[in-house]
Amino acid sequence: MFPLKNITAGWSRKQMIPRKHQDSFLKRLGELKSNGYPLDRAIEFLLINLELNLTAVHQEVVNDFLNGKNLSDTLSKLGFPDFVCLHIFFAERYGNVEETLKDTAELMTHQRREIKRLSKLLHYPLFLFVLFIVVLSVLNMYLLPRFTVLYSSMGQDSDGLVSIISTLFNQLPFIFLSIGTVLLCFFLTFIYYFKNKDAHDQWSLLASVPLLGYYARHYTSYVFSREASHLLKGGMSFQEMLRIFSQQPYRKLLCHMGQFISDELKRGQTVHQTLLQLPYLTDELKRITEHGEENGQLEEEWSFYSRYCLSSLEERTEKLFAFIQPSLFFMLGLAIIGAYLIILLPIFQIMQTI
Questions:
Q1: CA–CA distances in Å: residue 302 to residues 221, 265, 273, 305
Q2: CA-to-CA distance for 178 and 139, rounded, in angstroms?
Q3: Beta partners for residue 6, in sequence order
Q4: Where do transmembrane segments lie in this chain (predicted)?
């Protein structure tokens, strides 16, 4: 069920710990580390508790730590997402691995809960949409042609409203197909264009997209301000912090940011002036950076802003969820009303002629 290690080729690149267990794995790993467990023993203990048949992995974990491998490397091999490994990578530099493990576990739990919630929100509207497509097909294939024949046999023409609605419903399949084709072509073009860009251009492009840009800017600002503030609070110099950013292997954008900011500072630019050139950061972060430089509390203000940024993302997501389902119900309601009008209006019109 779960991929085993190939002795000659190294660990499998497939996910070794199922995603549904990863948040609890991190939380318990943080608790064991806080209670004095060595990381290799803690991971081995948790793998046994998960009842995964990964006996060979136990020895690999021990060997990795004996050979100087970091926890972030081990978690990457165990199939954890890059954003988890990124947080742990930085935590290993500023020395707060236990708390970061617990915080990241909470972040994963929240992320999984929001995805599940979105899925539940979309289930019923999608069911109604499929049902509407079935009704539309029945109307176009059977009901509308019969009404047309009936009107012709009675020597009558349908009134304006019925004619308009009938024409609209006849054209809906073509409209849906056209919109779907255009969206698919646009999506494929965007992906092709996106993949041929470097990390800076990719995130600049994402930041310019309506709605998506809000999440891109706030997520990037959250990660940068959170990790930078922790490193600076840990006693690291600003240049050393930037060097760590440029050397981490999990986010190309942060590598670019670390190198770019370092180069600009060497040219005599301030941090605020440098961040102004990065379109995938929020304006609030840039203003806070300017204020932090002036009062000498940059790491404290970045730390506060990272928490504010995360709460802003959660609030925006709540508002988006509150908007999605009613909007879908409204559009489906209009479509269903239109279907009823097509069925009932011709009947009423025929009854008036009897």
A1: 9, 18, 16, 5
A2: 20
A3: 10
A4: 121-144, 174-194, 328-351
Whole-number Å distance between alpha carbons of 119 and 331: 19
For the ranges 124-138, 218-232, 288-302, 334-348, the lowest mean pLDDT is seen at: 334-348
Take residue 259 and report the two structure tokens written for it: 């190198």
HSE, side-chain direction, 13 A CA sphere, residue 4: 9
Among 82-91, 122-131, 171-180, 291-300, name the one with the lowest average pLDDT.
122-131
Global pTM exceeds 0.70:
yes
> What distance in Å separates the CA atoms of residue 199 and residue 203, rounded to the nearest whole number?
6
Has residue 255 got a pLDDT over 50?
yes
Q: What is the DSSP letter of 143?
A: I
DSSP label at 209?
Answer: S
Residue with tokens 């981490």: 248
* Helix, strand, coil share (%) of the chain residues, nearest 5: 80, 0, 20
The answer to whether the CB of 90 falls within 8 A of the CB of 242 is no
Q: How many CB atoms lie under 10 A from the CB of residue 12?
A: 15
Let me know: does 261 contact 242? Beta carbons within 8 Å: yes
What pLDDT, on the 0 to 100 scale, is given for residue 152? 65
Q: How many residues does the chain have?
A: 354
Contact 284, 305 (CB under 8 A): yes
Chain centre to alpha carbon of residue 4: 29
End-to-end CA distance of the chain: 70
3-state secondary structure 53-78: CCHHHHHHHHHHHHCCCCHHHHHHHC
Alpha helices in the chain (DSSP H): 19-34, 39-49, 55-66, 71-77, 82-94, 97-138, 144-154, 160-195, 199-208, 212-233, 238-247, 252-266, 271-275, 283-295, 298-353
Fold of 200-318: Receptor-associated Protein (1.20.81)
**What would the two tokens of residue 197 be?**
């860009």
What are residue 195's DSSP bridge partners?
Answer: none
Asked if residue 163 lies in contact with residue 147, where contact means CB atoms within 8 angstroms, the answer is no
CB 277 within 8 A of CB 286: no
